[in-house]
């Protein structure tokens, strides 16, 4: 499969400095901040074929249960994709890391039993289109496992998030937006929220606009228009 590129000949997503920063911080957060246990919770009980969007540096791979027969991991950023390939080789389940974007998944419709979106909906360019793609590639009744940060519940924190999103935050953090509402977006895309737990991502004593988060399970309805 050839690497997706823009008309200018560059990668569809290109944030090499942020990618290196994220790779270091995410490893520390897993080891010392408890994010590894969130990954375990996120993936527990999955089986069959799974597609993971925005796989990053592949830290989820170690937590996939043995009942998963294959993981197709989509990652558009070259630096992170290279790291994900290395993690995939160490995983306990078969992992195929491929280039692509969440808005145009390079896989067939209704081909997967499960899908995973882990800290990725904040940075995709088109949330609705990305979720429509996930719904397309899931089998009817298939599960979408999500761990996403998003909009704060208080009026003032939410206003701060919107201000940051309109100014410096996306430019500093690889296109990340803090004020998106992943639950509302999933429901608008036709997913049914099965379980959901609200939490705060590890913030090492300093409240961050990206700390409010949700983890849970959504489902593509077993019948109806795809």
Automatic annotation (TrEMBL):
CDD domains per UniProt: AdoMet_MTases
One MF term in the entry's GO annotations: S-adenosylmethionine-dependent methyltransferase activity
Signal peptide segment: none
One GO-annotated biological process of the protein: methylation
Keywords from the UniProt entry: Methyltransferase, Transferase
SUPFAM superfamilies per the UniProt record, alphabetical: S-adenosyl-L-methionine-dependent methyltransferases (SSF53335)
Residue stretches making up the Methyltransferase type domain: 51-145
Protein name: Methyltransferase type 11
């Amino acid at each position: 499969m050839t690497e997706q590129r823009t008309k200018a000949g560059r990668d569809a997503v290109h944030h090499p400095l942020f990618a290196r920063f994220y790779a270091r911080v995410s490893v520390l957060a897993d080891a010392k901040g408890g994010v590894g246990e969130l990954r375990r919770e996120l993936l527990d009980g999955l089986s069959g074929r799974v597609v993971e969007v925005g796989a990053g540096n592949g830290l989820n791979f170690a937590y996939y249960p043995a009942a998963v027969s294959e993981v197709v991991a989509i990652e558009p950023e070259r630096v992170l994709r290279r790291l994900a390939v290395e993690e995939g080789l160490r995983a306990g389940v078969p992992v195929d890391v491929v280039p692509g974007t969440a808005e145009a998944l390079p896989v067939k419709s209704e081909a997967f039993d499960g899908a995973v979106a882990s800290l990725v909906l904040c940075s995709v360019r088109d949330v609705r289109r990305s979720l429509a793609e996930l719904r397309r590639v899931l089998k009817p009744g298939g599960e979408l496992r999500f761990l996403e940060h998003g909009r704060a519940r208080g009026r003032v924190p939410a206003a701060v998030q919107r201000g940051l999103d309109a100014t410096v935050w996306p430019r500093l953090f690889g296109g990340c937006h803090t004020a998106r509402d992943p639950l509302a977006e999933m429901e608008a895309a036709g997913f049914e929220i099965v379980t959901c737990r609200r939490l705060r991502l590890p913030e090492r004593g300093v409240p961050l606009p990206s700390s409010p988060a949700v983890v849970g399970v959504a489902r593509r309805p077993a019948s109806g228009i795809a």
